[in-house]
Amino acid sequence: MEINLTSYCQIKNGKIIHNGEVYYEDKENDFQKFIKNVYQFTKMDYRKFYKMDPLCKLSLMSSSILIDNLKEELNPNTALVLTNKSACLDVDLKHQKSIEGGFARPADFVYTLPNISLGEISIKYKLRSENSFFIFETFNPEFLINYSQSLIETQKAEAVLAGWVEITENEYNALLFLVEKKKGITLTKENLLNLI
């Protein structure tokens, strides 16, 4: 069974790369302004976007660019497997500062925890599939390859949307890729490391 990477999207340093081509570029250094510009550029109409924490915005935007530009409709039995280093530490640190400032903001916790990203992607694309968010010290291509292949080979999913979505303040890097039983880029550690 041939399982390959068939599409990918990376968002990093004010630039979005979709399948090797520059999709969008912005010199904005502030992540919140940058991601709002991307949202407007894509003409996405998803009102909950403005309530989301930065991790959720980055996850939803990178997955949307990848999925909305597929040649075929996404299989609803597509599993989601995301990873990062910091979980939702970015929001936790902001919340701690607000506590220290004497005013805790409950709104900080409307969208927190890494699995909220998975939920929003699933809701937007009507996915009823397995989903998991794992925390690793660094990008772990071997794990993503093995886990994706296992899900497809055991028929728990027809495809897997996998990747790394990390954000701390204004430093961010998202690399999401679609793994399917189709021709595409050979799914190897070296190929994934070249993309990140």
CATH class: Alpha Beta
The CATH homologous superfamily is called Thiolase/Chalcone synthase
Q: Give the rounded overall mean pLDDT.
A: 90
Can you give the helix content as a percent range? 25-40%
Can you describe this structure?
The protein is of the alpha+beta class and about 200 residues long. It has helices at about 30-40, 55-70, 90-100, 115-125, 140-155, 190-195, and strands at about 5-10, 15-20, 20-25, 80-85, 130-135, 160-170, 170-180, 185. Strands 1, 2, 3, 4, 5, 6, 7 and 8 form an 8-stranded mixed sheet that branches. A hairpin with a 2-residue loop joins strand 1 (about 5-10) and strand 2 (about 15-20). Helix 1 (about 30-40) runs parallel beside helix 2 (about 55-70) and helix 2 (about 55-70) runs parallel beside helix 4. The radius of gyration is 16 Å and the shape is globular. The two termini are about 25 Å apart. The relative contact order is 0.24. The mean pLDDT is about 90.
In short:
The protein is α+β, with helices and mostly antiparallel strands and 196 residues long. It has helices spanning 31-42, 54-68, 89-100, 115-125, 141-153, 189-195; strands spanning 4-12, 15-18, 21-25, 78-84, 131-135, 159-168, 171-180, 185-186. A hairpin with a 2-residue loop joins strand 6 (159-168) and strand 7 (171-180).
